[in-house]
Amino acid sequence: MLGKLVGFDDTIVAVATAHGLGAIAVIRLSGPQTYPIVNSLFPSKDLTKQPSHTLHFGNIVDNGSIIDEVVVSLYKGPKSYTGEDVIEISCHGSPYIQQRIMDACISAGARLAKAGEFTQRAFLNGKLDLTQAESVADLIASNSAASHQTAMQQMRGGFSKELHTLREQLITFSALIELELDFSQEDVEFADRTRLYSLVHDAAKTVQQLIDSFQMGNVIKNGVNTAIVGKPNAGKSTLLNTLLNENRAIVSDIAGTTRDTIEEVLNIDGILFRLIDTAGIRESADTIESIGVQKTMEKIREAGVVVYLFDANETSVEELQQQVDTFKSQQVNYLLVGNKIDITGEAALRAKFREFPHILFISAKNHEHISDLKNTLVKKVMSGDLNTENTIITNARHYAALKEVYKSLNDVRQGMDNGLPGDLLALDIRLCLHHLGEITGEVTNEDRLDYIFSKFCIGK
Fold first, then answer.
1. Which residue of 92, 99, 234, 318 is most buried, as measured by CB atoms within 10 A?
2. What pLDDT digit, counting tens, does each position of 36-50 carry?
């Protein structure tokens, strides 16, 4: 399939830097006519005679008019990002200048690139596999140290190497089993069943670990919706302000001050928590406040973790038990946080709520135990230690394919347990190879590629 797609006869162009004003902008071209197109706009020197991976200063000129002084970077294929001839024009960041240069390149024979088309060409020309290509988009979108490290690890091929090793081993066994079919009358076995069983067992274990890592990967990539809920005047807005170290929410002794949800992002140890300060949960005749309570219930259902904040001095054990029972019945991932320990004292409150050993007691007003709350939040959403050197799955497409791989491996294992003949074992192994190939792009189709790369930004 890929062979039919490689061999582009057109040249694409796009602005590779962010839109808007800036000191500089980069315009990227890729394709067979890259050098002739830019050469026609760059009279300072003949670029076709210059070596690859060099920089050249001069003017971009269109119809005798100088558009800008630029630096031109040359990358001759196949030693370029896309595997084709690539030139990057670094110009001043004026949107007007960028558009003039783009128009000149298009008039000279280039066409505007589609979203992700540079990376798509890199994939189709074998510069990187599909998992590495998708990690490019993740790297661009990374907004924390953890998401950056995870994307870098995948872009360098950590995930791909694991899959490639497994795939090569399965291909070897598949070939040997299918060879047996040619000698079925001689009743010989070329494929060592014991080794195959061991391989499948180890592979299933590795794939299961990758599947299990998706929960952590999703947290790293997308962050966690974290709803701060509780009765009015429990200190929710004070806690939000304390966590953010700024007065983001209005704090008042008047119950029901927060009528709508307030959302902010907090980075704790590389994990993004999307904090949502909600209206207090209580019965109210106030129409506006009632709408706020309704929104709170919606946020609870959407949240990855719910911080239930309560005034430890005013709340009874029975009230807290009722709330816990409600959370459990609704399968809410909750964290109990008792506030205002500065009033009665932490020891007395721990004795009061001794039936709830997992309560975290704090004083949002005095910033007591806030660091403990942050650490607990991280532990609450992470299934294991955050080690971004390990392979962590962050892509939903990879996750779905890995589940199919695991199912196929189990079918192979059960087939050997049941003494399944070689031809049926070969079918199960081929199915497993198919799903592995879907992840890396060794098995794909043009429509799926267009969908994947359409989610990239223009110019990448």
1. 234
2. 999 999 999 999 999
Sheet containing strand 305-311, edge to edge, reads 262-268, 271-277, 224-229, 305-311, 334-339, 360-361
DSSP assignments along 369-424, one per residue: THHHHHHHHHHHH-SS---TTS-----HHHHHHHHHHHHHHHHHHHHHHTT--HHH
Residues 6+ apart with CB under 8 A from 457: 115, 116, 137, 140
For the chain, the residue count is: 460
Residue 331's closest CA among 361, 293, 303? 303
Strands 224-229, 12-15: pairing kind: unpaired
Tokens found for residue 365: 């007003």
Q: Is 392 exposed, middle or buried (0-12, 13-18, 19+ CB in 10 A)?
A: buried
SS3 77: coil
* Encoded amino acid at 442, one letter: E
Token pair for 70: 């630029």
Token code pair at residue 397: 């497409």
